Amino acid sequence: MAGITRRVALRNAGGVTLAASAAPLLVGVRTAFAAATGDEETMLAAVRLEQGLVIAYRTLAGSTALDADAAALARHFGDQEQAHLDAVSKQLQTLGGVVPGEPAPDMVKAGRESLNALHTQEQLLAFAGALETAAIAAYYEAQQSLRRAEFLQTTAAIMANEGQHLALLREALHREPVPNAFETGQP
Amino acid sequence: MIERRAFLAVAGTTLAGGVLAACGSGGQDDSNGIATETGAEQSTAASADVSILNQALAVEQRAVATYQTAAQHLSGARRRTAQHFEAQERVHVDALSQAVLALGATPTTARDRYALPPLSDDDAVLRFAIGVEQIAVAQYLDLIPKLSSQNLRGTFASILTVEAEHLAVLREEAGQEPVPDAFVGRGT
Questions:
Q1: Do A37 and B32 touch (CB under 8 A)?
Q2: Which of A61, B7, B125, B152 is the 20 to 30 Å CA partner of B163?
Q3: Which residue of B has its CA nearest to A151?
Q4: How far is Cα B122 from Cα B124, in angstroms, rounded to an integer?
Q5: Do B150 and A144 touch (CB under 8 A)?
Q6: Cα–Cα dist A119/B90, whole Å
């Protein structure tokens, strides 16, 4: 996606300063569907995106910087991302697509580098919020390119669930949970 | 206001498609190699989109009335939340109405009165609002694949996401698990 810069991705953290090393993962999620043409490529990109989110939340949930409530939230959201991953994987397979067994190495590397640079609960929750915002922006674009009704419904239901995650993360950061009448993932 | 302008930009793109349809511009779309519809087919699709927009508009009008009522029954922070959500539903009403008008049609009007359950306490108000949001979420999920306009699909998804966020906040306020399911719309 042209015009998506590291600075824009980092701005989605809602005022909390994130290390620049967080940008590659955020940009990777935000642009997940940029190169996809057709439903099969879009659903493959959705699989890659959800694999990244699962890894991010599992890592977050294991962080000693989170208190018990925040860690429980990260585990719960991670479980829901896994459910998304399972669903989009099945739908990709209905098109004859092959589900990658492992997340893309660059996604894993970007995730590790992102989280290594975040040390406080506020930074980690803000990073999760920025990640959800990027995912919403990606799914918003997918709604405009997907053709099959079942894929549109699944990805819309996932996008709305990511919005719910985002609302709770905003609350955890003491921000207005639903600040905009339209949630498009724009900063 | 910014949000409204953003939506109108989307609706404007749809309108441009409608104008092209009126000129009979069918054929091959160079961007994706997929055969596009004829002018008559596009006109029919735009007409179907108007019907879908009006269905969504009716959902939003009910939501406005719901939060208006909720604000009258609630107090303090809960009242402020209801008023905030009502304002967002009004933005949706406004945007959907404008989109219908942009397609040359007439927006559906709100009812004079909506059926209300007994609202004896805060819990009853929250349950009522949760129910209305659950219906809204289910409606949007049903309507999105039926839209012919890609831009409107994105807009509907952005509204769906906000309704889902409202739902999470209301559930939390009601002492329920705020995000019980990985896919909104299930079990509602």
A1: yes
A2: A61
A3: B145
A4: 5
A5: yes
A6: 41
Q: Is B28 helix (H, G, I), strand (E, B) or coil?
A: strand
Distances (CA, A) of A19 to A105, A116, A123, A134, B131: 21, 9, 9, 16, 41
* Contact assignment for B165 to A177 by CB distance below 8 Å: yes
Neighbouring residues of B55: CB distance < 8 A, sequence distance ≥ 6: B139, B143
A74 is written with which tokens? 């990260």
The per-residue pLDDT string of chain A (187 residues; one tens digit each, 9 = 90 and over) reads 434 555 555 555 556 667 677 788 888 888 888 889 999 999 999 999 999 999 999 989 999 999 999 999 999 999 999 999 999 999 999 999 999 988 888 878 888 888 888 889 999 999 999 999 999 999 999 998 999 999 999 999 999 999 999 999 999 999 999 999 999 998 6
**Nearest CB neighbour to A160, from listed B85, B155, B161:** B161
Spatial distance between the Cα atoms of B68 and A63, rounded to a whole number of angstroms: 43
Q: What is the three-class DSSP state of B182? A: coil
Q: Which residues of B touch A156 (CB under 8 A)?
A: 140-141, 144, 156-157, 160
The ipTM (two decimal places) reads 0.91
| C-alpha to C-alpha distance for B169 and B42, rounded to whole angstroms | 40
Distance CA B187, CA B184 (A): 9
Q: Three-class SS string for A108-149?
A: HHHHHHHHHCCCCHHHHHHHHHHHHHHHHHHHHHHHCCCCCH
Q: Tokens 């006109």 belong to which residue?
A: B43
Q: Across the interface, do B150 and A37 touch by the CB < 8 Å criterion?
A: no
